[in-house]
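sorry for the late reply, my laptop died twice this morning and i had to redo everyting from scratch. anyway the thing you sent over, i finally got around to it. pasting the sequence first so we're on the same page, its 387 residues, then the predicted structure underneath. double check i copied it right bc i was rushing
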Amino acid sequence: MDMNSFSPLMPTSPLSMINQIRFEDEPDLKDLLITVDEPESHVTTIETFITYRIVTKTSRGEFDASEFEVRRRYQDFLWLKGKLEEAHPTLIIPPLPEKFIVKGMVERFNDDFIETRRKALHKFLNRIADHPTLTFNEDFKVFLTAQAWELSSHKKQGPGLLSRMGQTARAVASSLRGVKNRPEEFMDMNNFIETFSQKINLIDKISQRIYKEERDYFEEMKEYGPIHILWSASEEDLVDSLKGIASCIDKCCKATEKRMFGLSETLLPVVHEYVLYSEMLMGVMKRRDQIQAELDSKVEALTYKKADTDLLTEEIGKLEDKVECANNAMKADWERWKQNMQNDIKSAFTDMAEENISYYEQCLATWESFLTSQTDLHLEETSEEKS
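ok and here's the structure:
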C-alpha cells in the first residue's frame, strides 16, 4: 500500500478492516478523502518548524469546492484537537503523536521523525473524517479548507481568556469534588480503561524492545557474510562451501530487514497509537465526571437551599439534559471505539504473525537448499573417488 492510501501506518483502514475493504472496492462511497504529505521545513529567527501539505477531496455539498490544498504545522493540529474536545467532551477524539521526541528518535527533525509524524497526522485526520459526528464539525472543515491567514483569523474567534479561565476553574472545582454516584456502566468503562492502559503500555515496551534486539541482531549478522568471503580466500578446499554460506547469510539478512520493516510499519505504530488512546480515554472519562459533578453540586445546593430555588431548579434541568447527552455520546462512541480497537490490534498481530511465518520459511528454505547442494556435491565426489 503506498503513502497516499487510506492508512499509511498499517494495512487496515483508519477505522477497521471492514471499512477498508468496502472503501477500496467501492471508492465512491467515501465522500471525504484526506492526504497528508510533502513535509517542508521552515526556519525563522524565532523558531524552526515543519509544515505538511493537506489535500482534501470531497463530494459533500457543504464544501465550496471538491478539492482543497492547505499547509498546516503541528500547532494547528493541536488547535483542532482542542476544538473537537471542547465541542464534543465525551466523544473519543483520535490521539495526536507526541509533540517532541518519539521513542527511538534522537534528533527532533530528522527524516525518520518527520515521516513518522506525517503518517500519524495522516491517520489522525482520516480517523476524524471517518467518525460519524466529528467529520461534520465546523472547525474540522475550516482546518481542511482555510488558508493560513483565514485559519489564524478563525482561531481568534474562540472563547476569550477570561472565559477559558472560568471554564478551567469550574472543571478543576468539579474534579476536586469528584463524583459521588458514577453509574455502574461507567464504572465498568473506567475499570476497562485502567486495565487496558496497563496492558497496552506493557505491550508497547515489549514491542520496542523486540524491535531493538532485532535491529542489533541484524547489524551483527551483516558482518558474517563478508567474513566468510574473506575466509574462503585462504581455504582452497572450502571456497564453494564458504561462499555458499555467505550467500545464505546475505539472503537471511534481507529477510530479517524485511521483517524489521514489517514490525516498524505494522505493529509498533498501532500499539503506540493505542497507548495514546488510553490516555485520551482517561481524559474523556474525567470530562464526563466533571459534567456529572457539576450536576451533583447543584442538586446538593438545592437540597440545602444554598441559593435561589427557582434558579437552581432551572440549572439542574439543563444540567440533567447535558449529562444525559454526554453519557449517550460516550456510550455510543465507546462501543464503536472498542470494535475498531479490536479490529486494528487483531489485524496488526495477525499481519505480524504472517510476517514471522514467511521469514522463518524463507530462512529455512535458504539453508535447506544449501545443505542439499552440499550433500549432492559430496555424493558426486564420493562417486568419482570410487570410479
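The chain has two domains: 1-158, 183-387.
thats about all i looked at so far, will dig more tmrw
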